[in-house]
Amino acid sequence: MMVKRLIGRAALASLMTLAATPVMLANAQTVKIGLISTYSGPNAQYGDNIERGLKLYMKHNADKLPAGVKVELVVRDDGGPNPDAAKRLAQELIVRDKVNFLAGFVWTPNAMAVAPLITEAKVPTVILNAASSQITTRSPYFVRFSFTEWQVSYPLGQWAAKRYKRAYQIVSDYAPGYDAEEAFAKGFSEGGGQVIGKVRVPLASLDFTPFMQRAKDVKPDIVFGFVPAGKLSVQLMKAFTDLGMDKTGIKLIGSGNLTTDEELQGMGDVALGKMTTYHYSVAADRPANRAFQSLFAKEYGDKVVGNFVTVTAWDAMDAIYAAIRAQGGNVDPERTMNLLRNYKNPNSPRGPISIDPETRDIVQNIYIREVRRAGNQLANVELDVIPGVKDPWKEQNRKK
């Protein structure tokens, strides 16, 4: 029988006491980062890919820390979308392990669950994947280095409306799926397109055939698909192909989750020509990206891919190191948050990035991409760029 560990008065008192103690203010020789990520279950690749990016940065940038200061990762597995587990792990990391930062959070529900804890304990918390726009509104101690679904799906809707008239939507049934659904529909309808149907698929479902069949039956010009990046994107693509929808003239488009770099080679020729919008591609021909991919290959070999969450982890660690360096190792939570919310990097592997000081969300380029052959490999080739995109949901819902 699983016993849920809830945050009672005593625990909250411990958190508030912790926030008032000098643990986070002392000139710590070891700055601890509590990493809550997914290392088990069908989405275990997220944890591995994120940790590779963090450790790669740490290995090659130790000289960027103040003398005598080092960084330690304290790693915990949330097992997947599990808010109760995320809350329990966050509490343990804050109270018992006395971490200076929290980081990770693949899943939006898990990030939402820890918001009250990090607010009480004043722990800077770096989002490395979870993409629902509302996350950063839940606590002033969140800062996001990944992306939002609005950032990639709204521009895709605008792009698609210039080429197609009728769309059907298939999205995973959780918060980022709702964001993707709404964002694409808004961009598409504003451009004169019409969404003629939509369906939400249970997050645990691996069989997309019945849902894709509904799309085929109404004969849209395009199907907009959103699922978490990884194995589910392969299953979505498989359902589209098995039903012969590509042969009927229907196009499948989506955010970069659809043709995620680490799964792309296994998709085969069916992926060719698929159009997506995203903030990063392994194949991007930028000097900073070529240098990053070369460093990654030397460290981990050519059997694994330094994908979008790996780059996000690299960028986030650069920001954390900059915050530690600016304080001489004296990691004060309020000063840290001020430094993080004003972070800028003109030379990230994904292009210029910054944090919007008002929303604590990433500002970055969004790329129009097409799957093409590059030698004997498939690649998400960047064809065009929409520069400096802020989260459109927040831009459209700013308080007057």
Radius of gyration: 21 Å
Instruction: Characterize the main sheet.
Output: 9 strands, mixed
Strand content: 15-25%
Anisotropy-based shape:
globular
Give the structural class. alpha/beta
Q: In CATH, what is the homologous superfamily of the largest domain?
A: Response regulator
Helical fraction equals 40-55%
The whole-number mean of residue pLDDT values reads 91
Termini, distance in Å? 49 Å
CATH architecture identity of the largest domain: 3-Layer(aba) Sandwich
Separate helix tally? 13
Total number of strands: 14
Ordered list of secondary-structure elements with their pairings:
Elements: H1 9-20, E1 30-37, H2 45-60, E2 70-77, H3 83-95, E3 101-104, H4 108-121, E4 125-127, E5 142-144, H5 149-161, E6 166-172, H6 175-190, E7 194-201, H7 209-218, E8 222-226, H8 231-242, E9 251-255, H9 261-267, E10 275-278, H10 287-300, H11 308-326, H12 333-341, E11 344-348, E12 351-355, E13 362-374, E14 377-389, H13 392-396
Parallel strand pairs: 1-2, 1-3, 3-4, 4-5, 6-7, 6-8, 8-9, 9-10
Antiparallel strand pairs: 10-13, 11-12, 12-13, 13-14
Helix pairs in contact: 2-11, 3-4, 5-6, 8-9, 11-12
Structural notes for this entry:
The protein is α/β, with parallel strands linked by helices. It has two domains: 9-147 and 287-360, Response regulator (Rossmann fold, 3-Layer(aba) Sandwich), CATH 3.40.50; 150-278 and 365-396, Rossmann fold. The chain is 40% helix and 23% strand. The chain contains 13 helices and 14 strands. Strands 6, 7, 8, 9, 10, 11, 12, 13 and 14 form a nine-stranded mixed sheet that branches. Strands 2-1-3-4-5 form a five-stranded parallel sheet, sandwiched between helices. A hairpin with a 6-residue loop joins strand 12 (351-355) and strand 13. Helix 3 packs parallel to helix 4, helix 8 (231-242) runs parallel beside helix 9 and helix 11 (308-326) crosses helix 12. It is globular, with a radius of gyration of 21 Å.
